[in-house]
């Protein structure tokens, strides 16, 4: 295990130069193949250290959970409860013995299996990972144990507003849109799930024509392709297609969702509206502008609310993007007594985007910061595997990487004005506030149409 940790550290230090080229950064060479059964295979050789990282993306995620919220997440987690001829204990022992790191999970739009291991263990790991994808056992006893833990954890999450506020925000903005689904579900829905539900989800969505396998590391592409074909070529194609999601709704009035937590000593709040899709051509420029507003420690929001006013320990803004749109939010927390003061200051600071705009000096600082933060996001083989998975799932191509620095450099003050006007929501803002309702109810009505729900209520609907 110590040797494996040293190798992983070496990967972080060595892989950075692979992206560096004159005038910016470029995605290393890789190749894509689609097998006869529809399975997409993406391979990238990285020979600096004897490691292999694998990412598997399976379309679906929480947006196809239907009435059983959290089903995608339960199914992804249960891939590790036994596969092929190995039970959970044998799987865990195998991974621990060779120092392999394996995890799985689900997001709004896809499920994911991740693995990182030494090259010498390739013959051991690939067949196991193949069984986890194709032949998970969904052991009933292991599922029951995990289900009890998950129900308890989801119930406990309601004690932490910051752990659940994003789910309320999605529900407020998106209503019944598939992206409003909470990937982890809620305590009641998870408690209702059965082993048969997991088997059904797996049979429906875990199909090769719905799957992308990305492998990055110390191997020869031709050899790796043969190995993957041997494991996956007889996997039945299937016919399930992830349904197309409609356009995200746009709020037509300002609204406030007040989530009552009677014992709260502080208010946690989001302010926001519609965002942008992953494939939006202006997202690099938006990243630079958002860095100024709330994307770094020295941002406007953090300076005003934390440093100057002392109202919070941190404030930020974020674009959360999906395939067909996204959300934008400002987020922070403050003492109950200063809830309105903090909200007003956040709104005033946000308004600087339109009222004063961004000057040359501020823009230059943000551009330098964004360019400096970009390369470390794709240093390791694991990060590159994740990038390839995202790139081919959403179909946004290599230009995002290869042209990133040029797009940052080309951003002008005049262009920031267009991007602010086009993409940052200004009218009909949406507010989610979790706090002691009796102390702030009358004060927060000023921000929009008020709806109130108890944090103790099941799920995130209202």
What does this structure look like?
This protein has 462 residues and is an alpha+beta fold. Helices cover 45% and strands 20% of the residues. The chain has 18 helices and 16 strands. It has helices at 2-19, 71-78, 88-98, 122-134, 140-157, 161-174, 187-192, 195-205, 221-232, 283-295, 300-308, 339-355, 360-373, 381-394, 399-402, 404-409, 413-423, 437-444; strands at 20-21, 24-25, 31-34, 40-45, 51-59, 82-83, 86-87, 101-106, 110-118, 211-217, 255-260, 266-274, 316-322, 325-335, 430-435, 449-454. It has a 6-stranded mixed beta sheet, sandwiched between helices. Strands 13-14-12-15-11-16 form a 6-stranded mixed beta sheet, with helices on both faces. A hairpin with a 2-residue loop joins strand 1 (20-21) and strand 2 (24-25). Helix 2 packs across helix 8 (195-205), helix 10 packs across helix 13 (360-373) and helix 11 packs antiparallel against helix 12. The radius of gyration is 23 Å and the shape is globular.
């Amino acid at each position: 295990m110590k040797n494996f940790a040293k190798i992983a550290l070496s990967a972080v230090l060595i892989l950075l130069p692979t992206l560096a080229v004159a005038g910016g950064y470029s995605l290393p060479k890789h190749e894509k193949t689609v097998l006869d059964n529809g399975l997409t295979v993406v391979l990238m050789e990285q020979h600096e250290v004897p490691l292999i990282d694998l990412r598997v993306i399976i379309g679906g995620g929480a947006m196809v959970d239907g009435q059983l919220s959290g089903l995608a997440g339960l199914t992804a987690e249960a891939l590790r409860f036994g596969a092929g001829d190995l039970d959970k204990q044998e799987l865990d022992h195998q991974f621990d013995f060779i120092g392999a790191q394996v995890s799985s999970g689900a997001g709004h739009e896809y499920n994911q299996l991740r693995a990182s291991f030494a090259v010498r263990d390739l013959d051991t790991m690939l067949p196991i990972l193949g069984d986890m994808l194709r032949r998970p056992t969904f052991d009933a006893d292991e599922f029951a144990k995990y289900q009890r833990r998950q129900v308890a954890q989801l119930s406990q999450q309601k004690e932490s507003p910051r752990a659940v506020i994003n789910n309320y925000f999605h529900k407020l903005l998106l209503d019944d849109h598939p992206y409003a689904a909470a990937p982890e579900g809620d305590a009641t829905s998870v408690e209702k799930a059965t082993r048969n539900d997991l088997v059904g989800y797996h049979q429906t969505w875990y199909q090769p024509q719905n799957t992308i396998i990305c492998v990055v590391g110390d191997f020869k592409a031709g050899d790796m392709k043969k190995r993957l074909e041997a494991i996956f070529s007889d996997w039945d194609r299937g016919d399930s297609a992830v349904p197309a999601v409609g356009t995200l709704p746009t709020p037509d009035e300002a609204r406030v969702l007040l989530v009552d937590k009677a014992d709260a000593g502080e208010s946690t709040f989001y302010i926001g509206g519609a965002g942008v899709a992953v494939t939006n051509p202006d997202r690099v420029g938006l990243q630079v502008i958002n860095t100024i507003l709330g994307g770094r420690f020295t941002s406007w929001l953090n300076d005003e609310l934390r440093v100057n006013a002392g109202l919070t320990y941190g404030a930020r803004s974020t674009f959360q993007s999906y395939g067909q749109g996204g959300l934008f939010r400002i987020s922070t927390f403050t003492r109950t007594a200063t809830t309105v003061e903090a909200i007003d200051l956040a709104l005033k600071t946000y308004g600087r985007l339109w009222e004063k705009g961004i000057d040359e000096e501020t823009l230059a600082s943000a551009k330098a910061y964004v360019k400096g933060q970009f390369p470390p996001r794709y240093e390791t083989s694991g990060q590159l595997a994740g990038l390839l998975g995202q790139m081919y799932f959403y179909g946004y191509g290599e230009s995002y990487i290869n042209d990133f620095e040029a797009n940052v450099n080309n951003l002008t003050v005049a262009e920031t004005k267009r991007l602010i006007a086009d993409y940052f929501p200004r009218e009909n803002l949406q507010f989610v506030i979790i706090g002691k309702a009796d102390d702030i109810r009358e004060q927060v009505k000023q921000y929009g149409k008020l709806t109130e729900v108890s944090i103790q209520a099941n799920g995130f609907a209202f």
